[in-house]
Write a structure and sequence with these properties.
alpha+beta, Uridine Diphospho-n-acetylenolpyruvylglucosamine Reductase, domain 2, Uridine Diphospho-n-acetylenolpyruvylglucosamine Reductase, domain 3, Uridine Diphospho-n-acetylenolpyruvylglucosamine Reductase, domain 1, 3 domains, five-stranded antiparallel sheet, four-stranded mixed sheet, 19 strands, globular, binds flavin-adenine dinucleotide
Length: 301
């Protein structure tokens, strides 16, 4: 802790305006509402983010990157690591030819609404995904037939040696809930989205329809991280979990949602240990029942 304490002193000296939180409960920053204390920093510009990341390298600090925390399970005991939260990297720039550049911390909802207002379609699927551009690109987030890979044209990221990486088109390496940024441990700074002209009223209607489908099928009233497991080859995780008789089952205050078996939910007061034990129960039971090994979609820190 004292290394981080000293390092945060260096950050404060260099960027007196930057928000630095000591021993901040991660449960306040994750959609599962679990996770113990960590040191958190919130850069506001790409220059700050880049400078901070390079300063970390100079000091032998290996930071974790958090967006909106909607796909992360953080440890109950907290982390002896610096967490850089991108939420304040919130700039959007309109470009010509149906393109929009968004910084890593822009929420997908805000980006989709912004595109609608410009009469640009292609991001309707992302409107209900509660993460950021950085988290969405990193995870190749998708829903209802749409995926980030269909619209992300070029991403600027930081590589672990502090250099900038301009990844364009195929180089971004998207596949199902996967991108090249995962293997390269790259930090996404901004992405250019290439969209098509569309009627704002039609775009709005599509977004409303998808939101209604979400509300009807997902337990949005409980803290969760969305689908806990990836879709296995030739099946759906939720169907396999339901067929294994796991709806409503769980450990401690975590449980498989009755409404959508693909969601592990926090019933109130769950710990990450409860969530992990519930995930373990699901994996073992589904394996016994169907022989299929479910792989977590949630990133376990
Ligand atoms: C109710 C609910 C519904 C959901 N529905 C969907 C859905 O329909 N489709 C879907 O795909 N997902 C869904 N999710 C999961 C989640 O919203 C997505 O995975 C989202 O893309 C995560 O973004 P985030 O900013 O919250 O990332 P975080 O949870 O903060 O981080 C996720 C991972 O991305 C990394 N990361 C975050 N930002 C950056 C960055 N700038 N650079 C490098 N790495 C970064 C983190 O280190 C971590 O490994 C849902 C979640 C919830 C709670």
């Amino acid at each position: 802790m004292s290394l981080l304490h000293d390092f945060c002193g260096v950050i404060r000296e260099k960027w007196p305006e930057m928000k630095v939180l000591e021993e901040e409960p991660l449960k306040k920053h994750t959609s599962f509402q679990t996770g113990g204390p960590a040191w958190m920093v919130f850069p506001k510009t790409i220059a700050e983010m880049t400078g901070l990341y390079r300063l970390c390298l100079e000091h032998g600090i290996s930071p974790l990157i958090l967006g909106a925390g909607t796909n992360v399970l953080a440890p109950d005991q907290g982390l002896d690591r610096l967490v850089i939260c991108t939420r304040d990297l919130s700039g959007i720039r309109d470009m010509a030819d149906g393109k929009i550049e968004a910084m890593g911390g822009v929420t997908l909802t805000r980006l989709a609404v912004h595109a609608r207002d410009l009469g640009l379609m292609g991001l309707e699927f992302a409107h209900g995904i509660p993460g950021t551009v950085g988290g969405g690109v990193y995870m190749n987030a998708g829903a209802y037939g749409g995926e980030i890979r269909q619209v992300a044209e070029k991403t600027t990221a930081l590589l672990p040696d502090g250099s900038l990486w301009e990844a364009e088109g195929e180089v971004q390496g998207f596949s199902y809930r996967h991108s090249a940024f995962q293997e390269k441990q790259a930090v996404i700074l901004k992405t250019v989205f290439a969209l098509q002209p569309g009627d704002p009223a039609e775009i709005q209607k599509t977004m409303q329809d998808l939101a209604a489908r979400r509300r009807a099928s997902q337990p949005l009233e409980y803290p969760s991280a969305g689908s806990t497991f990836k879709r296995p080859q030739g099946g759906y995780a939720a169907a396999l979990i339901e067929q294994a008789g796991l709806k409503g089952k769980g450990v401690g205050r975590a449980a498989v949602s009755e409404k959508h078996a693909g969601f592990v939910i926090n019933l109130g007061g769950a710990t990450s240990k409860d969530v992990l034990a519930t995930m373990d129960l699901i994996q073992k039971t589904v394996q016994e029942h169907s022989g299929i090994c479910l792989e977590p979609e949630v990133r376990i820190w």
